[in-house]
Amino acid sequence: KLILLDSLLQEIQIVHTKLTMKFYYEYLGSKILAGFDTYKYSSKDTSPLSEYVMHPFWNQVVKICPRWVAPNLLTFVGFLCCIGHFGLLALYDYDYRSATAGPDVSGLPGVPGGVPVPSWAWVGVAVFLFLSHTLDGIDGKQARRTGSSNPLGELFDHGLDSWATIFITGAVYSVFGRNDDGLSVPLFRMFCLFWNIYLCFLISHWEKYNTGVLYLPWGYDFSMLGSFVMYLTTGALGMGIWKTELLWGIYPAQIMEPACYLANVGMTLPIAIYNIRQSYKEGTGKNRTFTEAMRPLVSTNLALILFFIWVLRSPNNVLEMDPRCMFLLTGTVFANICCKLIIAQMSNTRSELFSVILIPLALTVTAVLVIPGMSAGRELAILYGLTGFVLLAHIHYGTCVVAEMCDHLNIRPFHIKHVQGREKVSPAAEDSVRLLSSEESPV
User: Among residues 85, 189, 202, which one has the least CA distance to residue 132?
Assistant: First the structure.
């Protein structure tokens, strides 16, 4: 029996190896991998919330985590929690209509009120988000605590963060819902807000691409804590609390919209431009030419243009038919493009000008607009087909890149490589930075 079992395991291993070789593709190559060998992480986090609240809290939490738990495992579980809080709301509020106020509040007799998301689900959403934020905050601390820092961790962490933008923002929209009752943010304007948040995330890494320093935005911790409190409040007081008039006929959702633009366009972009300019003046950055410095922005802006053409010219108003799927598609395309920028700035290589993920998007938009008699069912099928393809393509890209990095660094992604004689690392209680100090390599 043991011989048969051993033979079966060998056969399974052979099949696994063949499948891996069949679907494996080297996205990075030797030049990019070599760039990671000299990479050193450098960041600045001046947020008072991070310094006085979050880091002291995370320093205590990480002490609970066993030393055998790999930092990348914390990152991955945190990302799954992020998907979980988005997915739980999708089960109860897929079309973003649960928050729609009834005629007694909206004054619109023809608009029925939505079926509210259960209170327990909002508590579950809050717990998932809290776990996601906490695990994202302690993964780097766990790396230093266990002496397992390496460049894969930052790439893994920030790559998943770029994808998390859709799940975090998409969950928040369920609190207010689409604007059927006239008391929220219309779908198209929410679509614009998604791109505002995508670009805000991109700007931070574009800034690092040119300065060599990641200036951590203040808004991240504030938005995560704010969302956590908002979900708990919704669970305790009900969804109707956000349909309460504040002042001069203004409702909470209508304040959120300009606040996002003010924080992102009004603060993040000007500060990033200032930091880049200073790095040129002081000679501390990469000092690239103007065209080279702007290369990382091209693919994302092309994606933005293509998606806006589709949404605005859709023969069947595809955004109205399935906004959640459209949001997921845009977020995944953005994440794929942003991951390549993160790789370029970490490996100190030239950023790509045109992302391959734009090809199926461009073909799809062209087909939708050119094919005559495009029915609603057919356009939805095209949307679902493209979303499925992009999801699989991005997952394939991510897994292959991680495999390449692991092979190059001679490590396993979710395993701590113990080395005798490893230098003693500082205790977590002394750690006061989000990821790593400027002298250390990331997870």
Answer: 85
- Distances, alpha carbon 397 to alpha carbons 20, 28, 202, 336, 354, in Å: 13, 10, 19, 8, 16
18, β-bridge pairs: none
Residues assigned a catalytic role: 158
User: CB-based contacts of 55: which residues, under 8 Å, 6+ apart?
Assistant: 137, 431, 432, 433, 434
Q: Are 430 and 145 in contact (CB under 8 A)?
A: no
pLDDT greater than 70 at residue 69: yes
* Token digits of residue 24: 């494996």
User: How far, in Å, CA of 296 to CA of 178, rounded?
Assistant: 33
Under the banding of pLDDT at 50, 70 and 90, the label for residue 147 is: confident
DSSP assignment string, 240-261 = GGGGS--STT--HHHHHHHHHH
Q: Could you say which DSSP state residue 116 is in? A: P
pLDDT bracket for residue 20 (50, 70, 90): low
Please check whether residue 292 is in contact with residue 157, taking contact to mean a CB–CB distance below 8 angstroms. no
Stated pTM of the model: 0.89
Within 10 angstroms of residue 322's Cβ, the number of other Cβ atoms is 18
Q: Is the CB of residue 418 less than 8 Å from the CB of residue 47?
A: no
